[in-house]
Design brief:
By secondary structure, the chain is α/β, with parallel strands linked by helices. The protein has 7 helices and 12 strands.
Length: 237
């Protein structure tokens, strides 16, 4: 199992005020799954993603990533693990504005010694998301959908064990959103593990499995019987 959590809790303390966000979550995610974590604003789904993505630590409970107990990993090793094993795609793209598509994609490997191999890898993942013709474009010359494709390519460059996509279609028009979901589905079909965080039913239905969270608790966890398939800007059931 790639991800396993048991009794996971998260709370934040500000002065004497304690805010409890996650209340003892337990589930597992196997390698190769496409899972949507769904819930309304304030449900705790983004906090959960930050913990699963090794950006934050849980207050209590157990989290194992690829068989390793995360609580026993120091911050330096955690940063290395996050950089090598996890890719992130965010709603706001998080691209550098005055650099090219190719440079943005290579960013996670900026300190790699084999620059030629890095260039080859970056061009390959950009081709995988349909942007081989935009290598020398600056990100401010791209549409929203193209920016998100760059973000996906950047997430792929380290060949991570899992990709976390946090509301990846939130800033896109419906057609671009469908195209992004198509890319994520194709990556999953190639063996990539995808964990999608969303509040939109339409987006979550592209996954194989949906975990619904409300008020920091899992209220539903089920397989998607009639999975939506995105193809060429259209939705097919």
């Amino acid at each position: 199992m790639l991800i396993s959590i048991s009794g996971l809790k998260k709370e934040y303390t500000t002065g004497e005020v304690v805010t409890k966000v996650l209340h003892g979550l337990s589930f597992g995610i196997d390698k190769g799954e496409f899972v949507a974590v769904m819930g309304p604003s304030g449900s705790g789904k983004s906090t959960l993603m930050h913990i699963l993505g090794l950006l934050e630590r849980a207050t209590s409970g157990q989290y194992e990533f690829a068989g390793r107990n995360v609580a026993r990993i120091d911050d330096n090793e955690l940063a290395r693990l996050r950089n090598e094993e996890i890719g992130f795609v965010f709603q706001a793209f998080n691209l550098l504005p005055r650099t090219t598509v190719l440079e943005n994609t290579k960013l996670p490997l900026i300190y790699a010694k084999d620059k030629e191999r890095v260039d080859e890898r970056a061009k390959k993942v950009l081709a995988d998301v349909g942007l081989e013709h935009r290598l020398d474009y600056y990100t401010n010359q791209l549409s929203g959908g193209e920016k998100q494709r760059v973000a996906i390519a950047r997430a792929l460059i380290n060949e991570p064990s899992v990709i976390f996509a946090d509301e990846p279609t939130g800033n896109l028009d419906s057609k671009s959103g469908v195209q992004i979901m198509e890319i994520l589905q194709k990556l999953n079909q190639k063996g990539n593990t995808i964990i999608l965080v969303t509040h939109e039913t339409y987006t979550s239905e592209h996954a194989q499995r949906i975990i619904e969270i409300k008020d920091g608790l899992i209220v539903n966890d089920f397989q998607v019987k009639h999975r939506r398939i995105a193809r060429d800007g259209e939705l097919l059931k």
